[in-house]
Amino acid sequence: APGAFSLREVLDAFRRCVTEQREVLLEPYLSGWRGLIRFLQSLGTVFSFISKDAVAKVALLAGLCEQQGLVSVQAMVRRELAAGRAALRARPDSGSRTLLRLHRALRWLQLFLQGLRSGDSRTSVLCTDAYNASLAEHHPWLIRKAATVAFCSLPSRDAFLEIMNVGPPEEAVAMLGEAMPYISDVYSITQQLFEEHDLLDLP
């Protein structure tokens, strides 16, 4: 089906993300995110509180890339820092702040997909653990509460592996294994960049 989620697309996008100079390219990053959003949407309304937000953030970043001809995350952060830290902190729609929100959600998905891959507990537990280790601290209590309730209704691990659209479960697991290092790489480069410039707590 058009618009259906495919793990292979996400893998390919994140594989294209990092250059030899360890820059994170925005076009494949956003493309990978569009795939992840389809993954969240294919799970029904459970994740809409995250997917709706991600859709808005991806659109905002794509717009910035186009207007400013930005190619990499590093170039975007450098450009925004050049205008001064105070100006950056004051802008709710800056590329850096928008990316930080996606970056935090990527961590949650990374942990969740890693958990799915090893599969030693129920998906609701995996998802809740991943959420508590990543996004929860950035969400108000009400959203945290709603999220953990929603996670209880998640489908089984096999259903998840089927949603990946790459054939039998063992193929999905193998491809998750292939995708994780690329996603982790993108995550850690971005994390380092934001740490270096002291941007991890942009309001």
TrEMBL record:
Report which reactions are catalysed by this protein.
N-(hexadecanoyl)-sphing-4-enine-1-phosphate(in) = N-(hexadecanoyl)-sphing-4-enine-1-phosphate(out); N-(9Z-octadecenoyl)-sphing-4-enine-1-phosphate(in) = N-(9Z-octadecenoyl)-sphing-4-enine-1-phosphate(out)
Q: Where in the cell is it found?
A: Cell membrane; Cytoplasm, Cytosol; Endosome membrane; Golgi apparatus, trans-Golgi network membrane
User: Which keywords does this chain's UniProt record carry?
Assistant: Cell membrane, Cytoplasm, Endosome, Golgi apparatus, Lipid transport, Lipid-binding, Membrane, Nucleus, Transport
Concerning InterPro entries, the annotation shows:
GLTP_sf, Glycolipid_transfer_prot_dom
The principal location of this protein is: membrane
Q: How does it sit in the membrane?
A: Peripheral membrane protein
| Molecular function terms from GO | ceramide 1-phosphate binding; ceramide 1-phosphate transfer activity
Q: Tell me the Gene Ontology biological-process terms attached to this UniProt entry.
A: negative regulation of interleukin-1 beta production
Entry's SUPFAM superfamilies? Glycolipid transfer protein, GLTP
Q: Which residues form the Glycolipid transfer protein domain?
A: 25-165
Q: Name one GO cellular component term.
A: endosome membrane
Alphabetized PANTHER family for the sequence: CERAMIDE-1-PHOSPHATE TRANSFER PROTEIN, GLYCOLIPID TRANSFER PROTEIN-RELATED
The similarity annotation says: Belongs to the GLTP family.
Q: What is this protein called?
A: Ceramide-1-phosphate transfer protein
Q: Specify the taxonomic lineage.
A: Eukaryota, Metazoa, Chordata, Craniata, Vertebrata
